[in-house]
Amino acid sequence: MDTTITLTVNGEKKTITTDPQRPLLDVLREELHLTGTKYGCGEGQCGACTVLMDGKSVLSCITPAGRADGKTITTIEGLAGPQGPSAGGGELHPVQEAFLEAGAMQCGYCTPGMIMTTAAFLKENPHPTDEQIAEGLNGNICRCNGYTKIANAVRLAAEKM
What we know:
- This protein is α+β, with helices and mostly antiparallel strands.
- It has helices at 24-31, 94-102, 111-124, 130-136, 147-160, and strands at 3-9, 12-18, 50-53, 56-59, 72-74.
- The chain has two domains: 3-78, Ubiquitin-like (UB roll), CATH 3.10.20; 91-160, [2Fe-2S]-binding domain (DNA polymerase, domain 1, Orthogonal Bundle), CATH 1.10.150.120.
- The radius of gyration is 15 Å and the shape is globular.
- The model has no long low-confidence stretch (mean pLDDT 94).
């Protein structure tokens, strides 16, 4: 049975009617047309679908849309805030800048999830060790095996933040 869900996505209040058990990922991509969040495995194992819910990273492929009711969701499109490139501005979030500078992407498919996970991780742990970075990114899979550059990007982002 469909229900009305109200959430704030990238600073904009949205109201949708959907099955509350429908994956948040589907709502973001299909209803709100925010396609930066990627479908990877559909089982919460790869991290490609990571978004922030009230500032904490969540796997949107296994998060029921109903759980997002009343919450604030940030996707890769909104990470830079109202001045970011998706809003016509030029500023990127420091994590996005670091990933660019470190060349921390190959095919780019995992990159949005890696960036969102990193943003939440560095908020909780602003000066991580290499071991903490590996643990913090555990659950995000890069199928192109670009982990060295990704770890370098996390360290660079920590410096920038």
